[in-house]
Structures are given as structure tokens and as C-alpha cells.
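FW: tagging you since you asked about this chain on Friday. Here's the raw sequence from the shared folder, copied in full. Didn't touch anything.
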Amino acid sequence: MKELNIEFVTQHGGLPNDCGQAVSNMVVRAFTDKRPTLRDMGFYDGEYKALWQVQAMLTKFGIASTIVSNQTVNWYKAQIDAGTPVIALVNYLHIVS
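HL: got it, structure written out here
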């Protein structure tokens, strides 16, 4: 599988539940010359983010995105191999025994 050169941005150090801001921030940093903070991303309220909010954060910085669901691991691998970053929303209740 191809490795994308995407700088890690932690969700820790700000409000709780900043994962939406963190993953959006990583994509913005990888595909633009901008270096926003988590607060700059928007929706900075400590609440979990919906997919439409993550999409709005990307749009704010000029990055087009598409929301899809129910994809296979092979689909994700193909996207990454094509150089397209993927943000996956995982419902942990379905993977915890």
C-alpha cells in the first residue's frame, strides 16, 4: 500500500473530542500551504463531529470532499494507492467485543 506524506496532528491539548478538527487539519496541511490550528478549523466546541461538519471544515480551506459509506478495506486501499487521503469515521461499538 502506498504511504501518503501527511503530517500527524494530535487531537490532544485542546478541547475533548477534537478528532474531526485533527483529521481535517492533517488533510489541509497536506494539500495546501495553510497551517491552521484546531480552533481555526471551526466547530470548536468539544463535541463529536458529524461527517457534514468535517466536510465543511475541508471546504472552508478549499478542499473538495465526498461522503461515502459502507466501503470495504480494499476500497480504502485503492483510494490511498491513488494518492487520495481517506478519513474514516469508526463506530467503536461495532468493533469492541
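FW: The chain has a mean pLDDT of 85.
HL: agreed, and The longest helix spans residues 19-31.
FW: great, closing this out.
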